[in-house]
Amino acid sequence: MSNQEALLLRHTVATLAYRAGKALRHAPPEFAEFRAGPATRTPAEILAHLGDLLDWAVSLVDGKQKWHNSPALAWEAGVARFFSALETFDQRLAGATEQSVPAEELFQGPIADALTHVGQIALLRRLAGSPVRAENYLVAAIAVGQVGEQQAAPRLEFD
Fold first, then answer.
1. Which of 105, 146, 139, 131 is nearest to 10 (CA)?
2. pLDDT single digits (tens) 97-144
3. What is the rounded radius of gyration, in angstroms, for the C-alpha atoms of the chain?
């Protein structure tokens, strides 16, 4: 993977952190177990899957592809696991070499899937009666390497 590709992926991961932070913050306690339907995942189960996707992404960069299905954690523990995995993934991307997995595969697999699931959590927040405010993400303060739970305040939100 070239430095330019790694930089673009790291910006995408920072975007994932920003959007996930917004969807995960201030969720009411009962939200973790909300079910939109009888056969749907709960937000806590989706959050566990997000952690698994990021662990998988790290294993891909390390050249040791590994997948596991983790059980849902308590909400705060799941959020902490998610951001910890994001930080680890970002660090691996920062040190990625030409011999690493192709950037396109990382994007089309774990990264795109994670973006989809963050959108699901945002949608479930609305369905559960705790909507996340809309935002013009084009002007959001998103920066490479800023992948922790603490994110910049929104610049332009709207209802």
1. 146
2. 777 789 999 999 999 999 999 999 999 999 999 999 999 999 999 999
3. 15
Distances (CA, A) of 3 to 57, 92, 138, 144, 148: 18, 12, 24, 13, 22
Taking CA atoms, 10 is separated from 18, 38, 108, in Å, by 12, 36, 14
Residues 6+ apart with CB under 8 A from 86: 13, 16, 17, 20, 54, 147, 148
Per domain, the residue ranges of the chain are 3-158
**H or E, element range at 158:** strand 157-158
Residue type, 135: E
pTM over the 0.90 mark? yes
Nearest to 20 by CA among 71, 68, 73, 78: 78
CATH class for the region spanning 3-158: mainly alpha
